[in-house]
Amino acid sequence: MARKISITKEMIKKAAFEIAESEGIDSVTARKLADKAGCSTQPIFRIYENMEQLHKDVFEMAIQEFSDFYGNYCSQHSEEDKPFVRFGMAYIDFAVKQSQLFCLLFLSKERYGKSLYELLNGSTGAFMKEIARAKSLGVKDPGELFMKMWIFIHGAASMAITGDYDLPEDETIRLLRETYVSSAS
Q1: Domain limits at 180?
Q2: Same domain as 90, residue 24
Q3: Nearest C-alpha neighbor of 114 from the set 54, 52, 158, 60
Q4: 25, 48, 71 — which closes off a domain?
Q5: pLDDT tens string 46-67
Q6: What distances in angstroms separate CA 53 from CA 66, 85, 102, 121, one per listed residue?
Q7: Global pTM?
């Protein structure tokens, strides 16, 4: 008799994340997930009481993906001296390269009890590091400065998803730097 393959929670989460990453969280259904994981729906509901719990786990995985993406972006672009510019570019680049996860994290009303602040800070403390950098450079109110920059950063990222933002990277960096300089004064 052939041995049955045991479906684990990690296997289910990984398959669900892959669907969410490519098609969006709304596409993570029991039937589609069972197909992706190579099982029936029974193991899914043995592991998860409902799909909402699974979606929450996928959301947590997306937070970690953003944190990792941000960390990798910063290590590859360490030369930027203006606060919030590297952060902004990483955020916009994430929207372009991981649009479904970006929508899940930053354009959805459902954040499973997480604030935008918690999402932006992630496991890297990204937001707080940028605030501290701005403060160390003499910015009197780095929180207000960030809000001014955030309007541009989030707007550009949202427009990138819809295809309405097509400025080259160097132009976006220039605009972020100018926004920082004009708002920091």
Answers
A1: 61-184
A2: no
A3: 60
A4: 48
A5: 999 999 999 999 999 999 999 9
A6: 20, 35, 20, 23
A7: 0.91
